[in-house]
Amino acid sequence: MESTFEHVYFPLTTVSSGEGKEVNIDIYCYCIQFVNICLLGNPTSKTKEWFLVDAGLPHSADNIIRLAEDHFGSMTKPQGILLTHGHFDHVGAIGELLQHWDVPVYAHELEIPYLTGKANYPKGDSTVNGGLISELSPLFPNHGINLENHVHSLPADGSIPGLPEWQWIHTPGHTPGHISLFRARDRSLLAGDAFVTVKQESLYNVILQTKEIKGPPKYFTTDWEAAEASVRKLQALQPVLAVTGHGTPIREEELTNQLNYLVENFERVAVPEEGRFVHER
Length: 281
Ligand SMILES: [Zn+2]
Ligand SMILES: [Zn+2]
Hints:
Layout: H1 2-9, E1 20-24, E2 27-32, E3 35-40, E4 51-53, H2 61-72, E5 80-82, H3 88-91, H4 94-100, E6 105-107, H5 112-115, H6 132-136, E7 151-153, E8 166-170, E9 179-183, E10 188-192, H7 203-208, H8 224-236, E11 241-244, E12 250-251, H9 252-264, H10 266-269
Parallel strand pairs: 4-5, 5-6, 6-7, 10-11
Antiparallel strand pairs: 1-2, 2-3, 3-4, 8-9, 9-10, 11-12
The structure holds zinc ion (2 copies).
One zinc ion binds near residues 174 and 193.
């Protein structure tokens, strides 16, 4: 299944693939083909402590390690890896990364079964329409991975060990244990796939990286009621900056306006007209 995926996606080197963006002194966002990872930490600080958020596509480990060393110095190592969720495009390189960096991985307790080989995600749903990526999505790997004792449940109080300024927010719907990360001090949000800033179902939009807030990628989202509640929860935080799992970072007025629009029109904008999981609403 993995080789099919690579075959399908090898030519998909988007214009922003391989591009890094320092969205803040301590938030560095990097696009691997069509999915983002983040380095959280200030490279000018004395300790240079940092966390990796999400782990990209299969075979991108060398790329991620090189990026981290360019940013934080050679032989650098994160304090841990945070996973917004366990879909293949967010955990693809984690096995190789853990061989290189023996660090703890944190995820929501409801996501742990998919990260310890006990559960698989449903296959991508090609019936949601919306474009070529949806049509190809049944080919995407949907199996859980097994990180064994590397992976830990995040503390129930919303804190993140080693990252005192940040809290995790449960934003289920796209997956049961999906989380977003929020820093109240400057209202920075890492939203994972709770919402994204590109119409992820459409190859055309993904290549052009047309910026437009959308609901979670449709072909993988299983609970639309929860997904809507999660977007409302994030809107209520009044974020000033949002970095999403797909698409480019978005700020201030543009973010506020588009997020409000998404919340007010969620049913029409985000929920597919048909699909295997739509009846569950
Ligand atoms: Zn996802
Ligand atoms: Zn994703």
